[in-house]
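Database export, one record per block. Field names are fixed; values are copied verbatim from the stored entry.
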Amino acid sequence: MKYLIFYLILIATISYAQPVDPFSKINSPYDEQNPVISYDGKTLYLTIAMHPQNIGGKRDPGDIWISVKEGDGWSDPVHGGGILNNSAYNSVAGMSKDGSELYLLSHYKANGSSPSTQGISVSRRTNIGWSVPQNITIPYFLNKSSTLDGYWHEQKSVIIFSAESHTTSGAEDLYVSFMRNGNWSELTNLGKVINSPNQEMSPSLNEDGTKLYFASNGRKGGLGSFDIYVSNRLDDTWTSWSEPVNVGSQINSDGRELYFREYPSQSFSLYTSTHNSDGYGDIRMIKDSINTNPPEIKPLAETVAPEILPENSILISGKVTNSKTGEGIPARLVFRAEAPNAANGNTEGAYSIVLKKAFVYAIEIDAVGYVNLSERLDIKSISTNNLEMNFKLQPIEVGAIVNLKSILFELGSTDLLDESYSELNVVVDFLTSNPKVEIELEGHTDNRGDEKKNLELSQQRVDKIKSYLVSRGINARRIKGKGFGGSRPIATNNTEEARKLNRRVEFRILKN
């Protein structure tokens, strides 16, 4: 697990009303991705991955599905059919304002089989539906990633891509291609201000093309595996950008957020999230606008008045908040090293504690009505005397998913690493304190190696964790367990950093 140092960051805030979920008929145990709404606001195109009705069945990486507006919500999605879909990854980059053209993030073959070339294509509306997509050539186009994310901006005649290509510095970088005199240009990398050594995904532009939204897992201070960021375009080179800003906790969570799309004519924006989802990724809506003025960022040590502390000590302070509402909650925090040190948060969730710098601490946070949290902190080499650590606790509710970040195994084995037992014991305490709660353990691997062996290993690891919990007095009937192997990644498997994110153990609350 990575050791986290938190900074005091003044970030943009988002205000929104909490409506009845308009996507209740769309969100499912499958992976809903890339919501694209037509300009008239009546049709929603989305990609659903691993759906049994996809062209390639349950192994299909994604087909285009279509939903229509019904009052304040959206209808059950209908498969887009064999014209727009094949057994490869299929997704929509955008739709023309007059509704006559649909830009697609893939190439097609006339017989419906998987294409041997890469790029984008366009389908045109006819009296009987969408035409067979016409492949568009982008010179020297290359994408080594398993999927292609992109956004077509009609007014600017550009398409923004997330791809692993010739000049990529990380797993996926963001690129732009320009329409010039009827032809598309070679890809231009957006540059190092935008692209990190990790992954930049699912780009989009605002209405006038001056703001870029994208998801990244390669930036300090992120809240989850992927967060949404925004950057201002500074000139017409498309390689000069303001420093990206995290859009904040009203959208970003400890899950994975992708595919942010602004729809000013509809007075809302859409995105997808794995946080408290029905299955993998669900579509979410947020009303009103985002304040994207770049904040001033300072280390906490520069913003907190100096404290008189014992030698070789550090003051740690922060807040414990509800992960869904952002409200502070009273909680108990225990920092365990040679001897446990405890702190209590007040009614606003604020806490502070003075610790010795000589140790690595296991941190346990609990509050009535919330899922216990476990973290790990190495402060031996920290030079500052002040450190802010903020924690978010999930309310105990059916469907909540908890990522057990510190439960780790020997490579290719069911042998638990020693540091795993601290978090396992937190789970024991949680189940003991909440005797009506029932959970399902879920084990996941990356996609390397034999698929069948990965599935078996993930199941064996889940069984190992269940055995430990039962050995500590938890009734076996309260714990289900299933291994998924590498079938449910939360990141691509193209880099070791991404594979680490996919190798995880989670539990889902089944009964409260």
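Remark 1: The two ends are 29 Å apart (CA to CA).
Remark 2: The chain has three domains: 31-287, 300-393, 401-511.
End of record.
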